[in-house]
Structures are given as structure tokens and as C-alpha cells.
């Protein structure tokens, strides 16, 4: 008799919990933190397997790279960049333009105005194939190819590409 009463009591509690959940709705799922850093130190997106970290620029590229395809979900990719978490994007100095966060500070002028290569970037040295200067054109941010040196066209604001730089 005692076991029957306990069993009925347990069933009543379970029924009450289910009834409460149906009546008032289940609590919302907590948001999953998907921020990660890739093996080459880039901002990334963590897949459901909690192991795979995709570079930001590989999210919403129409290629399912996470096992469950969460990198291409409609709620994530439906209204770019507004539907993306803030850590995956970088707004250029002209806020109408944006790039994926892993494209910031990569040595390339992805914004078109070099705003993605200024500020907190620790840009690598130009290397032997490039000349360091403040370029006149936004195609280059801090270095120009040495092939542009002494070509009769100003590429550096101080004209150093025409009088100091050697090919």
C-alpha cells in the first residue's frame, strides 16, 4: 500500500510538471556561446560538436562545414550582417560596409579605405618585396609592391616611391 501511494505521488508530481510546462511554456533555451579562436589565432564560430572552430568568413558561405550545418542556419544567415553575432563582424569606417572579423588586420585592404588595417592592428613589416610608406591610393594600406617604385607615378604621399625606393 505504501509503495502504491509513493508511486501515485511521483506520477502526480510528474504530471504537474508536464502540465505546468504545457500551460506556461517551456523555459527558453539558453544561448550557446559560439565564440572561439581558430588555430591560426583568428576569430571563429564554434560548431555544435564543441570542437570545430570555423574562421568567421566561413560562416554563411553556403557550404555546410559544421556537422549539423549550424554554420548555414537561416536564422544566422538570413539578414547579413544583422543576423550574425557581433564578434563575427567588423564595421568599416563607412558603416554601410562590413567584413568578417577574421579579415581585420590581415594585411589586405578589405574595407576599401584601410580602416580594417588601422587602429589595434599590429601590421607585419612590409618585407623585401614591398616598400613601406603612406600610400596615396587605398588599394594599399601601409606597403606598396616594389614593382611600383620609380615608375613615374606617385604611389606614396611623400613621393618616396619615386626617389628613395629601389625595385
From TrEMBL:
Domain (LDLRAD1-like C-terminal) ranges: 124-163
Designated name of the protein: Low density lipoprotein receptor class A domain containing 1
Pfam family for this entry, one: LDLRAD1_C
Superkingdom, natural source: Eukaryota
InterPro entries recorded: LDL_receptor-like_sf, LDLRAD1_C, LDrepeatLR_classA_rpt
SUPFAM superfamilies: LDL receptor-like module (SSF57424)
UniProtKB keywords: Disulfide bond
Organism: Pelusios castaneus
Amino acid at each position: 500500500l505504501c509503495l502504491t501511494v509513493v508511486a501515485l505521488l511521483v506520477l502526480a508530481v510528474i504530471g504537474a510538471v508536464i502540465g505546468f510546462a504545457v500551460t506556461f511554456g517551456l523555459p527558453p533555451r539558453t544561448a550557446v556561446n559560439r565564440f572561439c579562436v581558430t588555430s591560426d589565432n583568428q576569430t571563429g564560430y564554434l560548431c555544435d560538436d564543441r570542437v570545430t572552430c570555423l574562421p568567421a568568413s566561413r560562416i554563411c558561405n553556403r557550404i555546410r562545414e559544421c556537422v549539423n550545418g549550424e554554420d548555414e542556419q537561416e536564422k544566422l544567415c538570413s539578414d547579413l550582417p544583422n543576423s550574425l553575432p557581433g564578434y563575427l563582424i567588423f564595421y568599416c569606417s563607412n558603416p554601410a560596409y562590413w567584413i568578417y572579423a577574421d579579415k581585420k588586420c590581415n594585411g589586405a585592404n578589405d574595407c576599401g579605405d584601410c580602416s580594417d588595417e588601422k587602429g589595434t592592428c599590429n601590421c607585419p613589416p612590409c618585407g623585401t618585396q614591398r616598400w613601406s610608406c603612406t600610400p596615396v591610393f587605398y588599394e594599399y594600406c601601409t606597403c606598396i609592391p616594389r614593382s611600383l617604385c620609380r615608375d613615374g607615378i606617385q604611389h606614396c604621399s611623400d613621393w618616396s616611391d619615386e626617389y628613395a625606393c629601389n625595385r
